[in-house]
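Side project, low priority. Logging it here so it doesn't get lost.
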Amino acid sequence: MSSKIENFRHWLFLKEIFKISISAFGGPEVHLALFSKRLVSEKKFFSQAELIETYSVCNLLPGPSSTQTITTLGYRYGGAKLGFLTLLTWVLPSFLILSFLSFFYLSLPPKALHSLRYIQHVAVSFIIVASIKMLQPLMKDKISIGLAFFAFFICALLRHPLESYIKTPWMFPIVLITGAGISYFINRKSEFHREKKLTFNWVYLAAFLLLFISAAIIGKFTQNIYVVMFENNFRFGSIVFGGGNALYPMIFEQFVKFKKLINYDEFITGVGLVQATPGPIFSVASFLTGLALKNQGYVGQLAGCFIGITAIFLPGSLLAFWLFPVWNSIKKFRFFQRSFNGIIATSTGLVAASAYLLFLPLCINWKEPNNFFYTNIVYQNPINWINVAIIAVICTLMFKTRISTPVWVLLAILAGIII
């Protein structure tokens, strides 16, 4: 009977993951907001502290942070099997959509994505609401608030004056480590329980290293296009920090400039389509790898889609599965116990920074698009009050009502069609 109850609980969990996956437009910050809304506030599978802890640990790893977070949450809730099922459920909708579009994207009408424009407003509102809810538990601790503001100041307010330095994908882990160091220094005289027994499981790390090395060697000597595509995507997922925006230049350099497997227009089309597709941004690998193998026929192209989606997500998941059990042990050391409040606080500040950075292009008028330096602001009419009002109304309704995430997305799409 207990096994049946456990299976039912796991099914309910995966059902929620699927609901999130079909409404998760935007990047990892939006995804985190959705995890907080559905899995913490509404369904109470986890506490806010457990979510932020998992997100913080995953930000210290290379790979897709939101996918690693949701996969690790599945592992945390029901073990490795549920973790992998969570990963499959999370990436399935975006994989199916982008794989389909890799065959038919040339026939899409130019304005097909126009009806999705209001999803940006909903996405920004999700992050604003999530950041406020995450900041609330920190309000009684001046040190935590200070560290949250430190992360916000570095990654938001300094982003544009010092963009060439702050924009680096290494900045997030650097800020997290700095917050941990400050917290440790402040709490160095505090007494914490010390755990002497450590449990290390190296299976997932060994699997990661074996795949990384063997794919590189086999691809080098055989030059088999399918092995090479697996190795390329596995390498991307193993070394990228900073999410999809850091992934794009790697794929562009390898697929467009070096191997010339796809052209610039196909690459840009993939970037545009993944932004309009629910789910993780790393799913763009299924579209671009499928296109890279279009000369191999329909079966070869479909194989490319499977190779892209598998290879890009596998390394991050293996690393997360390795680190999470290890983390449960090493965080019991005094160093980590004294440091972890700093990691939580700076992670919260990074979420607030993401809300600010996504708010800017929508609500400030710029002389040149995609140039968010303060000197580029249109001084005569600097604020887009319509977008500010839309986001304010959505945020208020999100606080005051219990409208589910998929409904918000459907309302945004409907507004885009009608207006």
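Brief comment: The first helix runs from residue 2 to 21.
Revisit when time allows.
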